[in-house]
Design goal:
The protein is mainly α and 438 residues long. It has helices at 3-25, 32-45, 59-80, 91-114, 120-130, 155-170, 172-183, 192-223, 239-253, 258-272, 278-306, 315-336, 344-352, 358-370, 376-407. It has a single domain (56-411), classed as Na+/H+ antiporter like fold.
Length: 438
């Protein structure tokens, strides 16, 4: 039995199940990620001859596989958000990003250093890797496909989608800070100035500005170009992958954050012709590719678990990671949402569903490929544990919690009056409006 033949069969089975399972687990307290995580454990326990999926042994491969998974998910997230940009409209998002995420990083870093016994570079890397919520594994709590109604999104799904779309890029400066400390010293004079100028200001500005520019140009090509070149006329979904890789690659070449660029490019494409049905085509194709990549990554994660990924774990490190899921994220996110739109129950749901996943794995693999990180095995084990618990915990809770929230009939959305956009060609994709409080 050749391992490559087993791999082909495994990919085929995974792709087939990726098409079947979402319909089977719909309306049940189970998720597709849980199923594929378990399948990966089972497959790699069997004597199949498949190579070890240990991320410590293959940091470059792990980096690039998770990188692709994240950027495809970011394109899908950017395309499916209907709400226009606005300080108040995105109030929940910027509170979670500007208040919640830095406080989570601070708490986890201190806990990792003081309680888990990690050196400062490793503690900061652990905190930075666990900071972003995941756009790949969070489909059950995110907004649906694009519609022509700007205000059909309830605050819970909108906040979780927009937060996941942005914090993958905004956590990167903290990863670079951990790399800088590991490569130089803890003394701020050795790295702080360059970190602020390059890793914070320059890379974020280029990521946001470059992404908007690329998305604006692609929007012109999709919707405003001469008839023969106007790609929106041909309804070819694979163009979503072209837009994803183009935005990511170009901005990375000039030194910006490609994660931010992909999300902002998607938002600019959406804004260029907000109600066009081509957005639905792009989103659906990106979602299908994302689902296939999710299957592959979860199979590998399950295999890594049975191959000993969690073996270096210590009780203090495990408790530090679990504290993020059960105490730090819920409490910090809830406090950061004080004054944001939504009822207290909605704020608690947003705070609870801080799903950790593929982005966290990417950041640890990236750091391992760019610096000698002390206690890397313990960092990997802790991140692996948090991701696994998050997959199971949030996967089981997502369906019943969101259904309970929907049944209340009091979901909060944008405060502006809901008005369908004129000439809406996406009307057949628009969900039934949701009653609002009062």
């Amino acid at each position: 039995m050749e391992p490559v033949d087993v791999a082909f069969a495994l990919v085929g089975v995974g792709a087939l199940l990726a098409g079947i399972l979402p319909r089977m687990v719909e309306h049940r307290p189970l998720s597709m990620p849980i199923a594929f995580l378990g399948l990966g454990m089972l497959v790699f326990l069997l004597p199949t001859g498949l190579p070890s999926p240990d991320p410590l042994a293959h940091p470059q491969l792990t980096t690039h596989l998770t990188e692709i998974g994240v950027i495809v998910a970011l394109m899908g997230a950017g395309l499916k958000i209907d709400r226009r940009a606005g300080w108040r409209r995105w109030s929940s998002t910027w509170r979670l990003l500007a208040i919640g995420m830095p406080l989570c990083i601070l708490c986890v870093a201190l806990l990792g250093w003081w309680w888990a016994g990690l050196v400062p570079a490793a503690a900061l890397l652990l905190a930075a890797a666990l900071a972003p919520t995941d756009p790949v594994l969070a489909a059950d709590v995110q907004v649906g496909e694009p519609t022509d109604v700007e205000d059909n999104e309830d605050e819970v799904r909108f906040a979780l989608t927009s937060e996941a779309g942005l914090n993958d890029g905004l956590a990167f400066p903290f990863v670079y800070a951990a790399i800088a400390i590991a490569a130089t010293s803890l003394a701020p004079a050795d790295w702080l100035g360059q970190w602020l100028a390059v890793d914070v200001l320059y890379k974020i500005a280029v990521g946001v500005g470059g992404g908007l520019l690329v998305g604006w140009l692609l929007g012109k090509l999709f919707f405003r170009a001469p008839s023969q070149l106007r790609l929106a006329r041909h309804a070819e979904g694979f163009v979503a992958i072209a837009a994803t890789f183009l935005a990511y690659g170009l901005i990375e070449v000039v030194g910006g954050y490609g994660f931010l660029a992909v999300f902002f490019a998607a938002r600019a494409i959406r804004a260029s012709e907000r109600t066009h049905e081509f957005h639905g085509v792009l989103h659906d194709f990106a979602e299908q590719i994302e689902r296939l990549l999710t299957v592959l990554l979860l199979l590998f994660l399950g295999g890594a678990v049975v191959d000993g990924l969690l073996a270096p774990l210590t009780w203090p490190a495990a408790l530090s990671g679990l504290a993020l899921l059960f105490v730090i994220r819920p409490l910090v996110a809830w406090l950061s949402l004080r004054g944001a739109p939504g009822r207290p129950a909605e704020h608690w749901v947003i705070a609870f569903f801080g799903i950790r996943g593929v982005g966290s794995i990417y950041y640890v693999a990236y750091a391992a490929s760019h610096a000698e990180i002390p206690q890397l095995e313990l960092v990997w084990a802790t991140v692996g544990l948090v991701v696994i618990v998050s997959v199971v915990l949030h996967g089981i809770a997502a369906t019943p919690v969101m259904r309970l929230l929907d049944r209340t009939g009091e979901r909060t959305g944008d405060e502006t009056e809901r008005q369908p956009a004129p000439g809406a060609p996406l009307a057949e994709r628009t969900p039934v409006d949701v009653p609002r409080p009062g």
